[in-house]
Model the fold of this input.
Amino acid sequence: MSEPDAGSPRTGLAGRRWANFRRNRRGFLSTWIMVVLLLATLPAEFIANDRPLLVQFQDRYYFPVLANYPETTFGGDFATTADYRDPYVRDLIGADGWMLWPLVPFSYRTVALDLGEPAPSPPSAEHWLGTDDQARDVLARLIYGLRISILFGVVLTAFSSTIGIAAGLVQGYFGGLTDLLGQRLIEIWSGLPVLYLLIILASIVTPSFWLLLFLLLLFSWMGLVGVVRAEVLRARNFEYVKAARALGMSNARIMTRHVLPNAMVSTLTFLPFTLAGSVTVLTSLDFLGFGLPPGSPSLGELLNQGKNNLQAPWLGFTGFLALALLLSLLVFIGEAVRDAFDPRKVFQ
Amino acid sequence: MADTTEALVEIRDLAKTFDVSKPWLARLLEGIPVQALKAVDGVAFSIRRGETFSLVGESGCGKSSVARMVVGLDRPTRGSVVFDGTNLAALRRRADIAPLRRRMQMIFQDPYASLNPRWRVTDVVAEPLDAFGLVGSRSERTEKVADMLQQVGLSPDDGRKYPHEFSGGQRQRISIARALAANPDFVVCDEPTSALDVSVQAQILNLMKDLQQRFGLTYLFISHDLSVVNHVSSRIGVMYLGRLCEVAAASDLFRHPQHPYSRLLLDTIPDVAMAGRARAPVPGEVPDPIDPPPGCAFHPRCPFAGERCLQERPEPAQYGHSTVACHAVEERRIPPFSRSNPGR
Done:
């Protein structure tokens, strides 16, 4: 690997990678769009909610997004949490104050009761992307759905790469019987029909976010093992790794300090693609109805609605475009990361 | 052997066999037996405190395998390595081995590959310190590394650089600094100069000799280069095909080599006085170690081989100041060694 002449090689190498990453214009632009998307979806409660961000009532300030206030606070009749979309509550607050609403004044589970036509209703000034077949705002569900997709993907990727890297590291480093048994176990384990297993489990227990994550994790950790194992098999024969062993370093220390950094480049390159895969898995499970609990906002559920309501094309189009955008962005970013870590890549 | 000083390291009947046979199913189908390569076959010697013991021999004679077993990179098939009265093979728990491991370090052949290119020199040199928990504070670590770098003739400022910014000789100095950072008693040097320019070799060898005196080190020196060995050794073991042919003090070996193989090795040293004169060519090749010749392994190439050498394996015995494994020496069939310019 030829180093640039800039400063010390570590900053030089990092600088070179950053420059390579930036030079992949498509990937760099995708990264920025992804950042905007994350900023728009991660604080979903503040972007799309059926509660106002701020209420000023009788010279006092309330933050309904962060806390529950009973209706009686605003002079209503019930001790239950105020429904700010209710015209009665609106009038009460409007009489002696004001409300600041989020950009999209609906939550993912808000049923629009004042819809003038049968649900699903087409896009309008109030519902920018229309409503789904239960009269819920599609844009609000999309924002929450993207968030859960991204979060699920990130958490699943994080867990499965941690386990996968550890397994690959141990197998590759110790080799021999450990490696042999590990590889056979993975071959058998990966032969299990994952989808059937999930369908059976979904009929016994209602899958939650974490249970689903655990079930998918049982099978997704194997993805990185091969890559890491191959890198480690190579690295363990490096002279300086042997040197460390001869100097009496512990195996754990050699694995983490000498071998793993070598395997990290190829692993990092893999991560965006793993992330895209995780998003797809959740979407397909949701589409089939074996995913997140009913009522959860998700891209798969939106696609399923689009399939069931072909007379309402905005449902299918929204789901398709959102998923296509998300996956394209992840793949483009992945390509840019790959370029950044490619020692032979030279841009003009 | 007239031991005046105690032995720091004692190698007893050390052997290493590598399984080089085909996979089990292939063996079963083709009806071929298990094949074993005896890389080291019953080697025994002892290294006294403060001396430099060298192992010499052609490529593949098993000298590096001995070094690897001594430092624990490979587990011996048979025999034992006794370090300062403790049999290393008998220790199983890491906690028991660690204090001994600190006292036993290694310098490697290739100074380009044996240093992690991602690490700064400070971290490379401090690796044993960190691993054995020898320094308490950050400043103590920096100080110790700076001291080590100065001991090997580098500047403390070099610690901030990366290994690739140094020449081969400088990198070997870093390697030496790393080996000595843990303050060891015993250093195994596996061909430490064979990857270096001739002009740099002498510098590194002199540095190693200086450090040996300064820190009271004991060296096990592995080399195929007899002139290098002559420069550094107190005693020398000559290996051939996994066995020791001759163990003698350096001066004895170079002046009066007894084993025919030692003589052959000495004859191959090129020197100025011999220039232009025809030399006896080295007859034959090293035999296949998977299928070594019966009897004395050296007999196919030996000018003194007799009937007995083809059948019976010679055992090491004491002749004069040397330990030699040879029937011809035992039977006094060998004429005195004569060389136009015997060892310096």
Observations:
- The radius of gyration of chain A is 26 Å.
- The longest helix of chain A spans residues 251-288.
